[in-house]
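Worked example 2:
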Amino acid sequence: MSELVTGEAVALELLPAKFPSRALAVLLDLAAAMVAYVAVTMVLVVTTSSLDSAAQAALGIATFLLVPIGVPIAVETLSHGRSLGKTALGLRVVRDDGGPIRFRHALVRGAIGVVEILMTFGTVASIASLVSARGRRLGDVFAGTLVVRERIPVAQTGLIAPPPPHLAQRFAGLDLSAVPDGLWLAVRQYLTRMRQLDPVVSGEMAQRLAGDLAARTGAPLPADLPPAVFLAAVVHERQAREARQAFGADGSAPGEAPSAGRAGARASAERDAEAGDPSVYRAAATPVPPRSTAVPPAAPPLREQPGERPATGFAPPA
């Protein structure tokens, strides 16, 4: 993942396109441009046969500049970075800040692409893409653009299951002010993808992230909890604090009746707890014996009412 920062200081996670997919997209674009160029040339040869040789040569040069070069620039400008080949492979050209490209970006990419793709048969573009950390060719470097993947497999984007109910208030006293945003992002990415990792690798990553998180909070790592469960519980506590700060201590939004806010938060929490499966964290660490502290029985889950907001994977504070 490539983390980009927008003009509003918002970090974006973009997945840069790899060299094979970019090369295949360029080949599809070149094939389409050559087919269009041959078709237009044949039409011009038939319709301009009565002209002299100088006029035919001028039309040939104009056709070469407009069809294989000008048309791709116009297509990328109007489609905001999606050419025919990129659309087929799920790619898109974006600015360095993650925004859509404009005419000047497409013009610089197309002009430099004539040298590094057409004149050198793609040799310069291939070398530049392989050397660049984000797979950018010279046209992307000078234009300030990046080719990213728009289609990400669904398996790579998952919800974070809520922690067990008895851990909801256990970490309420932790000091989370010293935890950097990069560590929160790493923990969230791990929790959404830990079921796709090898169990040994997943356990090592969870242990390392839990140690870093415990060191930042100044509290020792709980010995009775698997590292993955500890990470999920602390992330849940952070979101609970943010929800209380945004909606008030009782969970009601500004101008909303407190009872309605508490009821909505409780229903959402119980719905998320019912939808979540805390057993998913068992794959990241060995099972832990049950705690000796008695846990009060949980209230029966409420039914989801029509029109309510779907569960997000996190249980907001009740």
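The first strand starts at residue 2 and ends at 5. The chain has a mean pLDDT of 74.
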